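Wait, mind explaining this?

_____
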Amino acid sequence: MIQINKSITSKVLTIGLQYKNHRGGIGGVIDTYSKYFESFNFICTYGITSSKIKILFNYIKSLFNTFFFLLLNREVKIVHIHGAAKGSVFRKYIVFNISKRIFRKKVIFHSHASEMENFYHKGNYLVKKVCTDFFNSVDLIICLSLSWDKFYNSNFNPKSTIVLENIVDQQTDIEAKQYNNSCPISFLFLGAIGDRKGIFDLLEVISLNKDYYKGKIKLIVGGNGEVDKLRKTILDNSLEEIVIFKGWVSGEEKRNLLETTDVYILPSYNEGLPLSILEAMSYGMPIISTNVGGISEIIHNNINGCLIEPGDFNGIQTSLNSFVESPILLRSYGLKSLDLVKPYYSESVIPKLNKIYLKLLE
């Protein structure tokens, strides 16, 4: 297995949210990275809890941990900060100041933000000031796609930026999806339950056409967030025969869903480069998603899926119907997904990350 040697990883401190038993793309990336580091120095700034007091306590604790770790481990030369938008920017900005301005370390900001553009452009004076100082002062910004690289270079004056693909493990013994004409076409949605991910748009489209879709499709939903609203929407629109809500799924249950469902759907309003899409592609799934963030770099319309605009109800309906009416697309699109996801496998991404570290250590 490809690994980054301890002579390098011992000099890197990773900062980010909880990655063990993670519930999101950032945690998934950090979790995968940890498997390929011979040693993994890590400080958690944000844990999985609903208690605001615990969140604040854990964050303050992480600042002390960062300070004393850097004080006592002088061999650390690079602080690799994984972050998003909104509150994450402010939390990581303080970590940056400790790392860069107190201990003079090289700092990477690894941007996973799906809402950074709106956050910055609609932000107040403080938001703009913090973002500008933060992104102009870190040694390197890692972007998930060319579109996000363009955003940072257009709005700030960063020292350096680079595109590093999100990472996903290659699955073994996976083939493209095949249609079983005795079963409905099954669509899978995994993610935060809320307006941003477009799940309620999807449910409305199904509701408006439920007589047509009964017996033809199943939608399996996994995630957390506005769960009560989701359940109410399903009940109020009599979608129980079509939509199945699984709650939060992970581990073997998640793998089973990716193996047994036909099409992955994520009609989001904004994204970075969703790890969930890459995971679905690694299972040979066609994808229905939106032209936001870096998604258009991995989903090619009518090649490995359907690319639509956010909030486009007609686009969602047409995409669903394309698989209902032409289930042969499952295999051809699935094969293309398996091909297009190859640059995101660890065998490609980890050597690039290794080179990034080596360059900063020069």
The longest helix spans residues 52-72.
